[in-house]
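chain below, 463 aa
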Amino acid sequence: MKLPILLIVDDEKPTRDALRMGFQDDYEVYTAANLTQAMTLMKEESPDLILTDLRLGGESGMDVLKAAAALPQPPLSIMMTAYGSVDVAVEAMKQGAYDFVTKPLNLDEVELVLKRALHTRQLENANHELTTRIQADAGIEKLIGRTPAMENLYSIIKQVAPGKATVLIEGESGTGKELVAQALHSLSGRPEHKFVVVNCAALSPQLLESELFGHEKGAFTGAINRRIGRFEQADGGTIFLDEIGEIDPSTQVRLLRVLSERTIERVGSNTPIQVNVRVLAATNKSLANLVEKGTFREDLFFRLNVVHIQMPPLRERIDDIPILASSFLKEFAKENNREIKPLSTEALHAILSYSWPGNVRELRTAMEHGVIMSNSAKIELAHLPRGLQNTEIVSTKLKNTQNNAQNTKIELAEMGCLNLDLLERTAIEKALCVAKGNKTVAAGLLGISRRTLQRKLQSSPLT
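prediction:
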């Protein structure tokens, strides 16, 4: 078991040696004769506790307290003094001392104070670890799912969030790119600062430059006052540039400078303004493809793509659909003061069979529709949007086709016919067409496993 680390600071060697001998069985003890030695040991050994004298020759133990308080993980400090006045005690506490003891020292008293301080430090550490875990969970609480794709996403978020690197989030519309950006900000170490969102596709080039960087009075027609841009508003925090692939070449150049030099210039001004901003960007397009087409700067792409996160579409995480649907049903039942109702078997089959081109956003809307329209004990298929009802109709027809194919196959076999798989292949072709080539969805429509569908395709490839 690792011993807690105790740093003793005293300019008198006999005192240092006596204290070291007295506590070396219970602590890993280091000693320092002055402030310089103490600061070196603080940085190298990261002590849990410091026991320092007030008078260190020509130096003061108060400076030891200040140096300790400035460390990333400050140790708890106990002041030793032969000048045991109230004023000294108050000043020591102001400088961050946990407690103080008077000289001549009583080792039993010192031991008691050290144990009490160590217990406090252990409670602080345990609380910090718990808080960190709670914050980590809270930061991603709006992201729902337990498929491998989502577990991998959570792992990346927790790994990347504490740093300052620019992050590019790519994925189809409705996959939750802004939720990932919010999670990165929440876990960034700067959650108390602003999280500023800019939809780059919603503004014209001139308005976007003004929105991002601000402008001076008279910079252009209608600029009657100075405007502070979003980068300045986000100083110390995070700016999220949504639909970054839509920005024009001129804005790309200015944004590149911000990422390179961390300075901005308001429109109509040549004065650089330093900004401390974490930049997160998102797009439903492939920036690499836009670079190849020549519509997006390669150097800007590299600056944005320091860390890349690819959002999985909902059709690739089908096992998460029931979890997401349940969460949304609870949310909208509470919001609309309705009873929480489950999905019927037919409705559940429909949402599992649908390809969800609008991804999680579309599923969320569908569940809200179901909560509003339901007038029975369950949310039935008829309570869902028409597109999902059509999916169930197609699914039923395909299953009937498959059953008919199976029955016909038996009849043909009994008659000695050779082309026994024609109708089955027809059903598979229709299912794949409806599922837009997604084998998992097609298998669900047919009522078979994906592995069975894959085996059938391998044994009798479609032409």
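The longest strand covers residues 76-81. The chain is about 50% helix and 15% strand.
thats it, cya
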